[in-house]
Amino acid sequence: MAKSHPAAPDWLLLPPNEQQLETGWVGYRHVSGALHWHHASSEESRLSAAIVLPTPVNDDSGITHALEHMVLRGSMRYPEPETFLSLRSELALLEFNASTQKETTRFHLSGYDPNSVLRGIGFFADSILSPQLTQEDFDQEIVRQHDSGYDGAMYREIGEYMRHQSFRASTVQAVNSDLRAALYGGMPDTIPKLDIGMLRRYHSHYYRPDNMLLLTSGSWPMVALWRQMSKALNNVGEPLPVSMEIPNIFADIPLEKDGDRIETLPFSSHWAAALYPTLNALKSQKQLKALGAELLPLTSDFQPVPALRCRVSAQCDKHALERHIDDCCIRLSSRRAMWQTGCFTLQQGRNMVNRWGNGLQRLYHEFSETPFAPPCLQADVCDSLLQQDPKENTPHRHGEWLSPCPPLTRMAILCRSNVRDAETRSSLERWLLLCQQRTLRWAWMKGKPMLGSMREWHCANALVLGYTVDLPERDVVALRHFWHQTLSADEISAVDGEWQHTPQGIVFCCAGSVPVVRTGAIMASHRDDETAMHVTLSFPHTTEAGAMAALGQAVMASSLVQKRRLGGRCYSVAVSLDLMSYELTFDTVADSDPSVSFIALLNAFETLSLPLGEIGFEQACRGGLGLVSARYNKSHARFHRALLNTVGRSVALDFSVVTPTNLAQLATKVLYALKHPTLH
């Protein structure tokens, strides 16, 4: 029998026959029907949470995407449409956003500050269950008639996506495949066909407590969490007595070439992932071209399930194409098949880490492997690829295909040199290439798939070259031991410098490469594209990084900057702080008039030239901490700390030296720099 919690009597511990304690997850249910699974065995200090709702859609209207936008524009407890943007600028969170997927809509967050995560989850819960959904908000956030065309934040978002050739290609592939995939985010010609009534009916039917799934991990204050959720759950009324008819709106997207068609080859998802790198090799691409076929991407946002798809001409012999793929499958060795499948799994995990951070990647993937995960969140596990028939025709259980990826860590070999020393740079690049070759050979022999890349970073007169490797946490010790025992400073003994073994890899600092400390004035550069504003502020290193971060978030909290986004005049306004280059950047996306956004930015700095009040100042400092954390702690935090350490930087900002007065003085200096931009 379910037992209620003494401090939160409306939350019930699931009975033993419904629990899965051996997996480390504990289940609770609210009296309204909302389900909560908490990863009690997680040792993370991060607090991660996600509210997941099933939101099925089979057309191109974008109704689920539109509803995700609309519920964040005001609710019963938070009626002001700017609340979400204000919270993003004042909470110390690593991630605080929503995402529309093929079969679900997710509202998720992660962070270290209990007060911030509790405020964030409370806002999400109330927005989901008690949104305002007004016509005025629909006109600004989704779409409205404007002059001879349309406007609105979401309409602009999709229009910006359509400017990218890869996105347009994915829509063509989705619409013209054997099994047509829904363009669930909406298209420029389908979004105007939506109306507020459709969204209200869809919300009433699917955004219900009994459909809600709450996932959490970390050391949450559980009673405080439940009380935040209950504030929203206890005020939900009965669903509207209306029938739910999902829209049936489709975009008209023809193939790029008449006579072509898209063929999906009959291979299972896991074998498709294993074969794809082989078929995508240059030699194989030439062979496919000779057969009149072109290999298409393995997955896309609209088609997340891996499949081998080819665009074929009218002259292509499908049977000859299938025979060629069968031959490639027969020649593929078992070792390479397992390697390429493992690399694909890591790529899926890395994509999630880059988008949502390590905490949410760990939360979603660990939950996906539990037996009680719903089909839309369940991983597609393949324990024995080599025993599986490559053409086994098993129907996919869900549209959001998850390849279970273990938690990832980034290791690195970092080399710092003087940016003007071309000879040393050439030597370091050759050595890093040798390190890459040795690492890949070792990983191949050990059967440990990993993802590596060469990268570089600039900091004043210093250049940092690096070879980074993303790999499962379980393989970190083995790779570190290999690097420390095999790679030697003797191989680059001709380069004078300091060699150091670290927990995250290897660091080599060349002599004469210590970054200089820039003094002087703030330098500003401003550039407007057709649909974007770009402003970069370069600060002298004597400026406190905490003041820069607080200033950036204070600008984002200003009313005119928020109105650019809330009025649907652009898709987003964003701020970013780079501690390597010591630059603060402001960018807009899908902007109707970048010059007006620049005026709004100037107005924000003019307002900030007067000292903030106590509450506004505290919010700016807390938001500044979140700004830095989202950049450097959201994903691969240890790697970022090691990288910043090579140039004498740290993510540990000191806000105690920041005051309302010196923040106002800094805003005044920035305002002067913006009015006298420097070309640099």
TrEMBL record:
GO terms, molecular function: metal ion binding
Pfam family, one: Peptidase_M16
Superkingdom field: Bacteria
Transmembrane spans: none
Domain Peptidase M16 N-terminal: 59-143
Protein name: Peptidase insulinase
Source species of the chain: Enterovibrio norvegicus FF-454
Organism placement in taxonomy: Bacteria, Pseudomonadati, Pseudomonadota, Gammaproteobacteria, Vibrionales
